[in-house]
Amino acid sequence: MKAFMVEKYGDQAGMRAAEAPDPQVGADDVLVKIHAAGVNPLDLRIRNGDFKTFLPYRLPLILGNDLAGTVVRVGPSVTRFAVGDEVYARPDKDRIGTFAELIAVHQEDLAPIPATLTMTEAASLPLVALTAWQALVERARVQPGQKVLVHAGAGGLGSIAVQLAKALGAHVATTVSTAKVDLARDLGADVVIDYRTQDFEEVLNGYDVVLDSLGGENLAQSLRVLKPGGTAISVAGPPDPAFARELGANPVLRLAMTALSSKTRRQAKRLGVTYSFLFMKASGDQLRELTPLIDTGKVRPVVDRAFPFDETLQAMEYVEKGRAKAGKVVVSMT
């Protein structure tokens, strides 16, 4: 099969199109013919080697973390799917590889594509939708009437998180650039901060939850807009001890992660709030829970552009250089 592979960590020069063996299909696996695959900042960070200390992939590695496609074979223990089913998924972190014609995915990580979505739309959703769900529902347990700040509300993650927070009954604020203010309002944000002209810390206060995808000073400011007892969840901030335990990291790596997040955790403690790092997990069941929200239009995909599969490297460059106007970039096989 044709695939796009990372041969050495670093920039785009370390990736190329290549022929790869068809995936092996285990007893609980579903072989999927991929029709479309989402492009995520995570792909760039994996390609660059940012996570190699705790995600020790063996190179060469087929990249890609989102897929939509059709089942072409099932393992002998598979009970949830049959040949011909249309499915989507974020594969487990140890089994990525959606920039390819085929992939074998554990049946528990797959879900049927919602009836209202095209393949391209479906491929844009799994990673960001699961991240939003795990942050807002699983970890923060957002309740109606709570105040939620979602940073970068027109981006891939932010556009879904804004809609999910609204569907949960929250009062939602978000930060966007000037050109994306109208889109953020259209997605349901109650308060839209134009970060080019406004400082969100001067406008917002008393928030219950912040979802941060930027890290750095943005995360430090986010802690200060929370009310006492509030929670900041970051997908870009420093990994914390809880993540190290979840990962089963060795003592040296656990110590390193503790040190990396110590400043942020100390700041949070002084303010009477909590900080946690989130690295999302694959879950077909959670994708199924999102289906009613998608089919009723409460959560809708935002696709910036679809590239042909042969232009996967150009699609990654497009994301890397920040050219996407809003939402996700997808590569399409058809």
TrEMBL record:
The keyword Oxidoreductase applies. Gene3D superfamilies: Medium-chain alcohol dehydrogenases, catalytic domain (3.90.180.10), NAD(P)-binding Rossmann-like Domain (3.40.50.720). Residues 10-331 form the Enoyl reductase (ER) domain. It holds the Pfam family ADH_N. Its EC number is 1.3.1.103. It comes from the Bacteria. GO terms for molecular function: 2-chloroacrylate reductase activity; zinc ion binding. Keywords: Oxidoreductase. InterPro entries: ADH-like_N (IPR013154), ER (IPR020843), GroES-like_sf (IPR011032), NAD(P)-bd_dom_sf (IPR036291), Quin_OxRdtase/zeta-crystal_CS (IPR002364), YIM1/Zinc_Alcohol_DH_Fams (IPR050700). It is an enzyme of class 1 (oxidoreductase). PANTHER family: ALCOHOL DEHYDROGENASE RELATED (PTHR11695), RETICULON-4-INTERACTING PROTEIN 1, MITOCHONDRIAL (PTHR11695:SF294). This is 2-haloacrylate reductase.
